Amino acid sequence: MRTKERRARIAIAGAGMGGAYLSRLLRKDGRDVDIFDVKSETKCGIAACGWAASKSFLEVVSGSGLAPEKYILQQSDHLVMDAIKLKADFMTVDKPRLIRDLLAGVKVRYGHLDMAQYDRIIDATGVARAYLPSVEDEVVSSCVQCRMQTDGVLENRVTTQSGGYTWCFRLSGHDYHVGWGSYLAESWKLIDQVRWLDDTRRTFGGHAVCRCTGNIRLTAPHYCRPFVTDGARDGVWGVGEAIGCVNPLGGDGLVYAMRSAQILIDYWDDPDAYTEAILEEFSWMTKARKVLDKVIRMNRFELSDARVLKDCLERMGVWIGIQQAATILMRFRRRH
Ligand SMILES: Cc1cc2nc3c(=O)[nH]c(=O)nc-3n(C[C@H](O)[C@H](O)[C@H](O)COP(=O)(O)OP(=O)(O)OC[C@H]3O[C@@H](n4cnc5c(N)ncnc54)[C@H](O)[C@@H]3O)c2cc1C
Question: Ligand 1 pocket check: which of 64, 76, 125, 140 to mutate, most ligand atoms within 8 Å of Cβ?
Fold first, then answer.
């Protein structure tokens, strides 16, 4: 890390995936950091629950000095997508535990962040993007999620629906994370249509341990600029989902939040270079966002759009044929 002044006062707003990871990297580098969050009402104590990750999780967590294996709940070699069994290589991870360990020894502050007290503010507030200007061309998916305990064993599966998809990922034993996400305003309608939870309950028994709602920014970094603005002596710098580091066609953002924090460390004193590096690393998200726009606007797809979806799924650790990708795009778009 190049540094102008090692004693600069740094505040991170947001003790989620990116903020917790960044605070650990900074503390490892001998810096004092204050980290702020808002109280979460959820049972697990974190705002956006997220449990599925590709293999890149291992590398990025290693970069923090923690042992990634500790956070793996289940590894899977397949995923049932729209009733088709696909080869896969992904895992479910214990995100609450990882965040706790990244923040070990740190007292998260839940009070007001007085910007005047700090030289630099990091906006790691995820979808809230609380310290950076709002984004004009925004796409946000609303989600409902639920942790379930069942009597029977369920498959890891994803079912595409108009405007989004439902998922079910095994956490451990008979413990599952199930959810629904849609960019449509009436996401609850989709959930009613799917009747996934009721059907699962009827077939496999079990009960919901907890349930909450959340949003995911599907906008892509390209549309979330600026990443750095005035507001503190050394600026307000965004990281993670606050600057759109989420796969627009998948909604996965855990790995990318951590990866963007690594990039921020590399370009700590150079906002332009930071912006360039983020845009380059996540340029594939711009392509995915363009396909998502076609889905939303009901435009015609090209073969290249199916390739983009295929690429997005491979990044998530799921292998799919081009024809299947094209079919999924059509299902994704269809409205009832
Ligand atoms: C329902 C759901 C399921 C998901 N599932 C997956 C998944 O399976 N795999 C995957 O890779 N990704 C998943 N994601 C996406 C993933 O959780 C996020 O992209 C990732 O956590 C982003 O990290 P972040 O640090 O940028 O933001 P977050 O992890 O969201 O952290 C932001 C933090 O900022 C805090 N905050 C908000 N406002 C303020 C404020 N004003 N001041 C201070 N703090 C504030 C929040 O409380 C939170 O702790 C899911 C998201 C949702 C909503």
Answer: 125
Mutational test site, ligand 1, from 254, 259, 260, 315, max ligand atoms within 8 Å of CB: 254
Token pair 């997005």 is at which residue?
312
**Per-residue pLDDT tens over the stretch 96-126:** 999 999 999 999 999 899 999 999 999 999 9
pTM higher than 0.85, yes or no? Answer: yes
Residue 276: count other Cβ atoms within 10 Å of its Cβ: 13
Q: Please, which residues have CB within 8 angstroms of residue 237's CB and are 6 or more apart in sequence? A: 120, 121, 122, 123, 227, 228, 264, 271, 274
Torsions phi, psi for 2 (to 5 deg): -85, 140
Quote the tokens at residue 226: 């600026």
d(CA 253, CA 218): 10
> What is the rounded distance in angstroms from the CA atom of residue 127 to the CA atom of residue 219?
10
Q: Is 246 in the pocket of ligand 1 (CB under 6 A)?
A: yes
Two tokens at 89? 């290589």
**Rounded to the nearest 10 degrees, how much is the dihedral formed by the CA atoms of 190, 242, 308, 137?**
70
Which residue's C-alpha comes closest to atom 23 of ligand 1? 17
pLDDT in tens, 302-322: 999 999 999 999 999 999 999
CATH class of the domain whose range is 10-333: alpha beta
